[in-house]
Specification:
It comes from Peromyscus maniculatus bairdii. By secondary structure, the protein is of the alpha+beta class. About 25% of the residues lie in helices and about 15% in strands. The protein has one domain: Phosphatidylinositol 3-kinase Catalytic Subunit, Chain A, domain 1 (Ubiquitin-like (UB roll)), CATH 3.10.20. The mean pLDDT is about 90.
Length: about 60
């Protein structure tokens, strides 16, 4: 399981939340998790937490 790409986990989470997969970003220890990352590459261990944030687009405001 440690060599399985995390894309499936990310897609499953987004599906359960009812949001598009590109609307969230997943981080582990401040590092963005790419679809092709594996738990082994990131050093993920049991009980570790993956942070999930809403992806912010734009960010430019007109005053």
């Amino acid at each position: 399981i440690t060599t399985t790409q995390l894309k499936k986990l990310k897609e499953s989470y987004c599906q359960r939340q009812g949001v598009p997969s590109n609307s969230l970003k997943f981080l582990f220890e401040g590092q963005r998790i790419a679809d092709n990352h594996t738990p082994e590459e990131l050093g993920l261990e049991e009980e570790d937490m993956i942070e999930v944030y809403q992806e912010q687009t734009g960010g430019h405001s007109t005053v």
